[in-house]
Amino acid sequence: MDDPRRILLIRPSALGDVCRTVPLLVSLRRAYPAARIDWLVQDGFGDAIRHHPDLSGVVPFARAELGRSMKRANPIPTLRFLHELRSGAYDLAIDAQGLFRSGLFARATRAGRRIGPRDAREGAARFYSDRVTSGHPHTVDRMLALLNPLGIEAAGDMRLYTSDEDRAWAEDVCDGRSPIIIASTSRWLAKRWPAERFATIARELAGEHLVVIVGGPAEHTQIQPVLALARTSESVLDLVGKTTVARLMALIERAKLVIANDSAAVHMGVAFGRPLVALYGPTNVARVGPYGRAADVIQHLEDGDRLEHKDDARITMMERIAVEEVLERAVSRLANTSTSPKRERGESHR
Description:
By secondary structure, the protein is an alpha/beta fold. It has two domains: 145 residues, Rossmann fold, CATH 3.40.50.2000; 171 residues, Rossmann fold (3-Layer(aba) Sandwich). 34% of the residues lie in helices and 15% in strands. It contains 14 helices and twelve strands. The strands form two sheets. The chain has a six-stranded parallel β-sheet, sandwiched between helices. Strands 9-8-7-10-11-12 form a six-stranded parallel β-sheet, sandwiched between helices. Strand 8, helix 9 and strand 9 form a beta-alpha-beta unit. The longest helix has 13 residues.
């Protein structure tokens, strides 16, 4: 097969997974510098990768809109989207998600070569021309294994990119300071470290440092003790529900430290090379932990533990993490902080 001219990378969600799929993009660009490389991503997450210099274009997947139309028994918007994928004239499609829907998207491109994981769920493997088996435990390495049929070298570059506008916003909102970012929320109850403990950490670090609290619009109720502190301390800034994906990235890019539950903020911290304290409970760190940064994880496993983050009862695993050890780790990371992330990539290929 000749070098592909038009490539579609498929990784719609979730936000953290989109962030850690970037090495696949970088690897493809290094192997095929003249190719057009597009990325199919859920429309709410496009800003995570929009400014990457190795990306040619974003193909937004309007998940909620298409889902609503299907529930109304109206398949026309979905059929139109599938037709648009075919119109892209891709000769290579790589499904890094491995679900029925993402596999269907790969098939819809009519690309001559469609690569995906052999163990894809929901029967998605039926849509691929090349099915890849990976013996690697970590998700990033498993995605990079999708390059094996192409015979190209994998690159471990996780770097994310932000716009001048978003960096200027972050500098302004932080009054020129490099903040400590605390991402104390999570969709899953069992991934949440108690909010009272996050408030204690914020109180101990505020004053000498600017502490910025981040989270999604629907997550205010999870962390009331932290937000109550923000209302009484000028050194604690509440930005929960007040940032876009792009602005969250810009905040993390300038952070002197990121303290977070298992969430997208962890992977953004890795991508920007920021000092990190990652709090994990019922999650397999070897599979989905911060890539190459296992030393930044605090997790206490015991015999008989079941790593099932969707089981609310597993929150007891997060409760094993003590305030004192998080504070000690944070102070240690701050003592060795560099607040200037590297920005050393070439011009855009878009």
